[in-house]
Amino acid sequence: MQPSEVEKMETVTISMKNVPALYLEADNVSPDAFAGKTSAQIADLHVYEGNTTGKLGNYFEVSGNAGATAADTKIVVKGDVKRVKYIGMKMSAGEIVVEGSTDQYVGAWMKGGKITVKGNVEAFAATAMRGGELIIEGNAGNYLGAAYRGDWRGMSKGTIHVMGNAGSDVGMYMTGGEIVIDGNVDVHVATHAEGGRIIVKGNAKSKVGGQMVDGNIFIFGTIDIMMPGYKYVDTVEQEVAGTKAKFAHFIGDMGERHKTKKGQVIYGNLYTRV
Amino acid sequence: MSEYIIKNGHVFDPVQGIKGDKADVAIKNGKIVKDSEVSKSAKVIDAKGKTVMAGAVEIHAHIAGPKVNLGRIYRPEDKLFTCTPTHGHERMGSGNSIPSTFKTGYEYARMGYTTAMEAAMPPLFSRHTHEEIRDTPIIDEGAFPVFGNNWFVMEYLKNREVENTAAYIAWLLRATKGYAVKVVNPGGTEAWHWGLNCLTVNDPVPYFDITPAEIIKGLIDANEYLGLPHSMHIHPNNLGNPGNYTTTLDTLKIAQGIKPKNKFGREQVLHLTHTQFHSYKGTNWGDFESGAKEVMDYINKNKNITVDTGNVTLDETTTMTADGPFEHHLTELNHLKWANVDVEVETAAGVVPYIYSPNISVCAIQWAIGLELALYAKDPMRCFITTDHPNAGPFTRYPRVIKWLMSQRARETQINAFKHKDKVLSQTGIGAIDRELTLYEIAAMTRAGPAKSLGLSSMCGGLAPGMDADVVVYNINPEKPFENPDQIEAAFSRAACVFKSGVEVVKDGEIVSSGNKRTLWVNAKVNDNPQVMRDITEKFLKYYSVTQANYESLGHSFVPNPYALEVDATQ
């Protein structure tokens, strides 16, 4: 970030004061929705709790005014937001810092900007992400960077970094961008992927790269059960996420259709550290 | 019932030949009456500087039934960000290309549509279809059962038994509360059961030893034998393939010389649906070009044919058809999810999502072909606007299609936005067409024409005294030219006011009543036919998974407000 940008960045802090009884749908907690608004106007934005529509200010203490645009706005979320969904949904610029853990759909459909969650997130974080940066210092739930239910368009651009573990179905239908997981992942990695890059520093269980057509998966640890549709090609030395190592290179999923690019048949690539 | 008088609007009514003259339209007891027949207490609607038309009539859309619902079930992403919460008179709705039943009714009404036909009802699932129709508010609806791959029909027609075919059609229309004889890829969907297809009208159907041409001819003859309100309604063989316009012309030629026989004022014996998908020249997707001129030239010359366009709207949508083999072909092309449903001895269907991208030359050419057809049509009373909803685009895009048809400037803007503009101009005739349809022609293509083709000309599609009071007021002043073609789209998207059978259902684009929805069906009486009745009993025992008693759609739970068109074919 350029120093000039830092200077004009305005910070809005929202602190949970009345924890909702049900889950709160707060897609308005985004720099795009806050931009150009005073703290009072921000408190007046709507949120949903079950089938009732309420105000953000009913649940959160809002302090500070937003910047003129999303890019000039930083949001700090404090307090217990474990029952708040959709933080940073569709955001295009600016920054959000969630100081604790939060619920589903963090950064879903985000196009730009940066979200940092200091705790854990539940499922569907960065659904169909199209750009920007998502950092999760704790663990991520299932369907990280995946496509929405039924859709065939998963994460296409941007980066996700999970410092803990991730659940199942990471990068389902991924077409681009990068996901780095420092810990372990559950079953189904990059299912149906047609691009993108997933790096798992820990271990994977099974169904890694199932029905994958294109894209790259790196597993530093072990895979409990390898997919039968993957074929060993060779062993390569590569620098991946700052670590230089030797990897066994597999291609697949052989049971899926295969694209051709400039006369070359394209496969998904699965690398496991040797 | 309330009385209304819609005053000083510019009326466009092809039924009475009124071309924008200022006139009053009076409503009493759900019908249109002469101005003198309403009392002084009639509520006045001021339509000064506005356009008044009859309620529009949808002749072909997939809006109810199992394959529509399959689309809804397997495309949750179609509902994403498209939900409308309960407000005012409206219940909640969702979906874009496959909206929920409630949203379907509201969206049609908002655009000024008051009657719509579900274009393909699998007879075995008529109960499901009618339950959805029941839950679609405001608009009158009918449903066309599919006959083109039906085992009874193929067995009777193999032996040229038109009378038995007619008796079976009459029985099935009554059992399923159906409206017309629909044919989808005749013989081809049955061939699909054997992993095959019928791509010309002369390809033999496996096992049944019959050709599509024989099925088509036989069903036209049976339709006219009965004198049904609508003609045989066909989606021909070889849909969506380059070079298929010859199959289309071969199909149309089968109707040559056949005269309509009915008491409903219908003049055609064959309705060709979503003609855009059947007007392709070229040999592959590389040299793909428009065959709209060839197909429409033939239609212009042959008065016993009506058509609808099937305009591509350049949207993400969901294709669904009883043409099972075509949907398999499509999923192989676009690699998106595919669902297939087989309906026992009657039909089969497939569903595949599709994105008509303006950046893909084939999609842009398809867009041009649909518009070319409507713009080449000499008789707007025989060429109707559809999007084959949701196959070429959602029905909610009709206002946009009307904009393109009414404004050369709007077409040019779109052509210039295409990535492969030059290809669109070289492979189609769209660039050379300067015709701009008038409001009168639009009224013919969306109201009077489809109503007449459906045999409903005495009920709807016009504003003559005695007809149902389906009346729409649009915010269009025909005396003032549009500053921007987008105003056409905006005006047709949200009618100023809509009456359905004399009930005000839309006011300033908002739903104000759920109306008095009816289900239209055709009750055809034929002479007792013990052979056909025995065949039906036998097939139910032998092949069907349900009993005959569980087959019929009847009673309040399926058809709560029926309106039967009576036909007497006893001789």
Structure description:
The complex is a heterodimer of chains A (274) and B (571). By secondary structure, chain A is mainly β. Chain A has four helices and 21 strands. Chain A has a 13-stranded mixed β-sheet. Chain B has two domains: 3-53 and 467-511, Urease, subunit C, domain 1 (Roll); 54-453, Alpha-Beta Barrel (TIM Barrel), CATH 3.20.20. In chain B, helix 17 links the parallel strand 23 (519-525) and strand 24. At the A-B interface, loops of A face loops of B.
Topology, please?
The complex is a heterodimer of chains A (about 270) and B (about 575).
Chain A: H1 3-8, E1 10-16, E2 24-25, H2 31-34, H3 39-43, E3 46-49, E4 52-55, H4 56-59, E5 60-63, E6 73-78, E7 84-85, E8 95-98, E9 114-117, E10 130-136, E11 157-162, E12 178-181, E13 194-200, E14 204-206, E15 214-219, E16 223-225, E17 231-240, E18 243-252, E19 260-261, E20 264-265, E21 268-273
Parallel strand pairs in A: 1-6, 2-7, 6-8, 8-9, 9-10, 10-11, 11-12, 12-13, 13-15, 14-16, 15-21
Antiparallel strand pairs in A: 1-5, 2-3, 3-4, 17-18, 18-21, 19-20
Chain B: E1 3-13, E2 18-28, E3 31-33, E4 43-46, E5 51-54, E6 56-61, H1 66-74, H2 101-110, E7 113-121, H3 126-134, E8 140-145, H4 151-158, H5 162-176, E9 182-184, H6 188-192, H7 212-226, E10 232-235, H8 245-253, E11 270-272, E12 280-281, E13 289-290, H9 292-301, E14 305-308, E15 316-321, H10 324-334, E16 339-343, E17 347-355, H11 361-376, E18 383-384, H12 398-406, H13 408-417, H14 421-427, H15 439-453, E19 471-474, H16 486-493, E20 497-500, E21 503-507, E22 510-511, E23 519-525, H17 530-542, E24 562-568
Helix pairs in contact in B: 4-5, 4-7, 5-7, 5-17, 8-9, 9-11, 11-14, 12-13, 12-16
